[in-house]
Amino acid sequence: MHPRLAGLAASPRRLMAMLLPVALLALPLPAAATPSANDLPVEDIQTFAEVFERIKRAYVEEVDDSTLLRNAMRGMLSELDPHSAYLDREEFQSLRESTEGEFGGVGIEVGTQDGQLTVITPIDDTPASRAGLQSRDVILRIDDTPTERLSLQEAVNLMRGDPGTEISLTIMRQGEDAPRTFTMTREVIRTESVRSELLEPGYGYLRVSQFQTRTGDQVRNAIADMEREGALNGLVLDLRNNPGGVLQAAVAVADVFLDSGLIVYTEGRLPDTEMRFSASTETAAPDVPLVVLINGGSASAAEIVAGALQDQRRGVVMGTESFGKGSVQQIMPLGNGEGLKLTTALYFTPGGRSIQAQGIEPDVQVVRGRLEVAEGSELMVREADLEGHLRSRDEPRTRGELGERLREDYQLGEALNLLKALNVLSQRDR
Known about the structure:
Layout: H1 12-26, H2 42-58, H3 65-78, E1 85-87, H4 89-100, E2 102-105, E3 108-113, E4 116-122, H5 127-131, E5 138-142, E6 145-146, H6 152-159, E7 166-172, E8 180-185, E9 187-190, E10 194-200, E11 203-208, H7 215-227, E12 234-238, H8 247-257, E13 262-268, E14 275-278, E15 290-294, H9 301-311, E16 316-319, E17 327-333, E18 339-348, E19 364-365, H10 399-408, H11 410-429
Parallel strand pairs: 11-12, 12-15, 15-16, 16-19
Antiparallel strand pairs: 1-18, 2-9, 3-4, 5-6, 5-7, 7-8, 10-11, 13-14, 13-18, 17-18
């Protein structure tokens, strides 16, 4: 908003009287001059003042000038894209809590698609993930409040609250005929970003649920821990339902697997929004065969990592198409303690692909599913099924649990099979 418009809290007629001189001052004096991009459009300002006056005079309830002007600013930003927003003091604090990784809520990342409040992804081990919420679920109501007219930040504020309090979300899921309601109890959401384990001797699993400041270091430490059990013949990097996070953390994770080349670059209108990030020569796992799992809940920083590893031919990307959130938001504090969250640039993969509204296409398409045991196979008895059988020295003690998990998670099972095949082929080439 123009500096001359700041702090207006007078009558609508005074507002119009002040708006018009500002607009006229912005007009170039020479009649033949070409209008500058910075000139304020007189007719639009007149229309704004007229709308302002009519609301003040005729709206069913009295509305103060400050509320109307803030609503105008909210509308101005919300109409740009789903991620730009005007942040009042409470919303600014809420954003800081998210950045710090601890807040009271149910643990979902949300955005807007086609004007609807949509789940981008549930965060691991939170009320939302345990209740069964899924990526692309459309949230119709938060308790008794319809989401149709809520801003993204208003919806987030409603979903957050004191730990121990209940919340109900009414959602519509693609492919279903009727909405369903999930009732959950809010918890303190503390997001641990990295988890790792050995699926089998020599084959590691690395889960990154979101990108926080220390995620790169945590990935390096997790790989080192797994390598203490023996050399890694393959690694699954699971970025499914990862909503993104800190850009520098995504660069650090990609750098764990790359020893050279571009990771990501950004383009915007201002010089300071154009950045390029490249891999360093210090690399924790430059040669370990790698499968990267993505799905529709993989967004932003997760897509940066997947796109970099795919373009650099460092790993095989498997799963389903990612979310397609390839824009950069800058937080801009305002002098009154409030702020703006403004989209200022777009991400591009090393090969020049825009992630925005495109997403990352997997090299190998594997949809979510469950491995069903073939009929009659349960009748076959093997040595491992006999009670009291001797364990192989190489047999993981959680083999039964892992087997069940791989049956439940078809994509993970296929990733492990692909790693084994890659390992066999590499041995033949030696």
